[in-house]
Amino acid sequence: MSKHKQFSEQNYSLSPAIFYILLSLANTPRHGYDIMKQVEADSQGKVKLGPGTLYGAIKRMLEDKLISETDSEHARRKYYQLSEKGRAIFSKELQRYDEAVQLAKKRSLLLNPLNKINLAYV
Amino acid sequence: MYDTKTIQLPEKAEKLFSLLLLFYPKEYKKKFGNEIQILLKDLYQEELATRREVEIWFWISKSMDIIKNAFIQHIDLINQQGMKKYLKSEFNFNRYNLIGTIFLTPALTVFAIDLISRVIQFDLVHYNRPVYNFLSHTPLYWYPVLVTWVIVLPTLAVIINLIPLIKNMQSKKKSIYVKLFNKQNLFSLIILFLGLMFLAIIKLHDFAPCILHGLILKGFSNLGLIINMCRNA
Fold first, then answer.
1. What is the dihedral of CA A54, A55, A61, A65, to 10 degrees?
2. Which residues in chain A touch residue B40, judged by CB atoms under 8 angstroms apart?
């Protein structure tokens, strides 16, 4: 087992790349190219994974059992899906983000979309 | 889900991608190499479809990403296995390589000191007199010791490292080029090259720096002139 951070439900922190990969696998298994394009779409172009970066992340997630391989109709392509552990950790992360957003709203820290437009013309 | 079809890449592209995958550790390449190749083909197809041609930046960015991550995978493997097991499993660093490295260490050290001292004085042609005077008064320059680390040890290092190379020549691979120049022979080839280089330096220890100095000043186009000049110097 590698010495990098081990994910547990209590001790986790997802990098943007891993977060978006887990998001892309939330509803359906995907193969590498699919994951790459979905991540780019979901992050609106902010997270772009190269082939080396993507499979480095996939290897880490397989080692930490966040994802698993699944059967596919294509002999050469491997498909990946969220594991139970991956789903639990991802849900916790989403919950954490939600709590942070609720808190920010409560403190009026989030910019009103209208304010963003006004700022453009300042 | 995105519609992807694998297409046939140009031959040079296939070769480049196969070459890039060689940077990865063996186990990683075995597990993910095929998928990475398929992904590269998908990206190539996408680039062709959107831009009608594949620009040089596509190759550069993909190559850099793969090389960078290959480096990370090697570091990860060293952290998992430790350096000794990593060198043995990845590069077949065996006892012959270890002995060869030990035998070449004195020559390597003196060569490095000599080269650095010549660079510091901005003159590669002539040895650095203070450094030479210091070294020549150490036991390293007593005649029997000198002969040992200059001639005997590099010769032994070369001979010993021929053993794993000869063993690997008996592999089932067809091409002699592939049998010889592969990752498994990396350290043996490096030690062989260094050993032979040191043995050549015995004869060429002023000739070689003179050539290097001439190339830096006058460039490769004057190589013939430089060789003549250094031969007569």
1. 140
2. 51
Give the total number of structural domains in chain B.
Answer: 2
Helix axes B186-204 and B83-91, enclosed angle (nearest 10): 90
Q: Which positions in chain B touch A4 (Cβ < 8 Å)?
A: 76
Q: Which amino acid is at B218?
A: K
Between CA B113 and CA B104 the distance in angstroms is 14
The answer to whether residue A92 is domain-embedded is yes
Note whether B178 and B199 are same-domain residues: yes
Cβ-in-10-Å burial (0-12, 13-18, 19+) of B84 comes to: exposed
Count of structural domains within chain A: 1
Measure the CA–CA gap between A25 and A86, rounded to whole angstroms. Answer: 10
Task: Give the closest of A36, A37, A56 to B73, CB-based.
Answer: A56
Of the residues B67, B88, B109, the one at which a domain ends:
B88
Phi and psi torsions of A67, nearest 5° = -135, 165
Residue type, B18: S
Q: What is the CATH number of the domain that holds A29?
A: 1.10.10.10
Question: How many contacts, defined by CB atoms under 8 Å, are there between A and B?
Answer: 67
Of A28, A32, A59, which is closest to B39 when you measure between CB atoms? A32
What confidence tens digit (pLDDT) does each residue in B69-85 have?
999 999 999 999 998 88
Helix and strand numbers (H, E) in chain A are: 5, 2
**B38 with A37: Cβ contact below 8 A:** no
Look up residue A71 and give its two tokens.
């059967």
Q: What is the pTM of this model?
A: 0.70
For residue A18, give the 3-state DSSP assignment: helix
Helix (H) or strand (E) holding A63: helix A51-63
- For A74: left if phi > 0, alpha if psi spans -120 to 50, otherwise beta; the answer is beta
CA distance B56 to B166: 40
For residue range B41-53, list pLDDT tens digits in order.
889 888 888 888 8
Cα A110 to chain centroid distance, Å, stands at: 22
> How high is the ipTM of this complex?
0.78
User: Domain containing B26: what range?
Assistant: 11-88
Mean pLDDT computed over every residue of chain B:
84
According to DSSP, residue B184 is labeled G
Q: Is B185 inside a domain boundary? A: yes
